[in-house]
Each structure stands twice: as C-alpha cells, then as structure tokens.
Predict the 3D structure of the following.
Amino acid sequence: MSNTQPSKEALCDWLLTCVAAKVKIDRDKIRTDVSMDEYGLDSVSAVSISGELSEMLNRDLPGTLLYEYSTIDELTDHLVRSGAATGQSPASEASA
C-alpha cells in the first residue's frame, strides 16, 4: 500500500473527468466553482464518486461527501485540509 497522496491539481483533474463522465458533459464545460448538482449529478452518481474517491485515496469517506462539499473546488480543498491530498503541484512535490 502506497502512502503517496495525489496533488490537489491531480485530484481536481480526476474529479472533473469523473463528473463529466457521470453527467455526460464535456469536461471543458464544467466549472470547478459551480455546484456539481447544477450539471445534473444525481444522488446515485454522487455516492458512486464518493466510493471511487474512497478507494483511490485508500480511506473511508462518507457517501454524502459531494453534498457536504458541492463544488469541485470545495471538495478538493477539504481533501487537502484533511490530509487526503497534498496542496502541492506534482512539480513542487518532485522538488520537495
């Protein structure tokens, strides 16, 4: 098991791709500061993304996570603050 945490940017990128796939919208049309439910993300998809995120980060996350942090920006900020992701970009991680 790896203790490597994804960067905030990598997590944001993953969430953009995942949300875009769930709501069937081009990821370039999704803004990270707009509530994901405004793009049509339903409860089943939100819980699914929480589960996938939990597996990716190897930690327990509540199924309600996307309701507590409704934008991608809010969610990634929370995950960085809680230690599930790093606040560094991949380039700054490499130089650390």
About this structure: The chain has one domain: 8-84. DSSP finds five helices and no strands in the chain. Helices lie at 8-23, 43-57, 65-68, 72-81, 90-95.
